[in-house]
Design brief:
Elements lengths: L2 E5 L8 E3 L3 E4 L1 H4 L11 E2 L1 E3 L1 E5 L6 E5 L6 E12 L4 E13 L2 E2 L12 E6 L6 H7 L2 E2 L5 E11 L4 E11 L11 E12 L5 E3 L11 E10 L4 H25 L2 H29 L1
Amino acid sequence: MDWHPIQGVFLPSAQCFWNRLWIHCDPDLAKAVTESQSKTIDVKYAIYIALIRHENSTIHINFTAGKNDLEKPVHQIFKVENDLRDLNVNIFIRVPIKLGVKDIWTNNNLQIQGCNGDIVEQPTIPDFVAALQKQPEVNCSVAVCRVFKCAANLIRKQTKFYVISGNVSSGWIEQTGLRSAVFELVSTATLDYNKTAYIFFSSDSINTAPIGKINTQVEVYEEKLPLKETIGGVVGGLVLLALITAGLYKAGFFKSNYKKMLEEAGAGAEGPRGDAEALSQE
């Protein structure tokens, strides 16, 4: 027994059980259907393929504002799972590679194993600065994207992986005018399959394959200047010293020490004078 989605109108006389999207035919009951009762219907096989962000994908990197020669390693990994049946599909992976006149990745020849990356798409939003200041998402609407076509023969219950790997540069960030922000670097994956033979199984009524997304946060922040911290520490120390000095002065610490010093100086002066008088009397 097998279940198939259908299109068109099915006659109940065909000895099959059916509802809005699915039809199930019993082979034994079907034998009783005569040629005059049979009708031709369009049958589509249900498929379900998941495009998932792999857990080892890079979540977050950061750069210091104003430093345009930095780079950080980034890995974005799509996990493809096929649940229902064997089929051939094309998987299109779109990766932002350039923002304005600056490359996003240090490798100009970014590759994905098992895929052809000859296609380059231009952004649909020319003013990327205004767009990123409203929503800091670096995707194919604001950036030039390389499109990778991955022809896949998917076996039922099979899992495939597609890895985007390289170093992301800090050079493109300065163009945005933002010195403190968290950007989302977004790569996407979509499916292309024979829609006359297959229908994507989903819980909604649209029956369209979803778009897989991988987001990597790229943070830029202002560097704290050590000079300011040093000056602040010195000023704070001087203020503390002044407060301690004022407290000691109010407590009479300096007066008592000064009086003691005067007394010791007077006693020292009388000592030599007394000795001189004694010698003269002799």
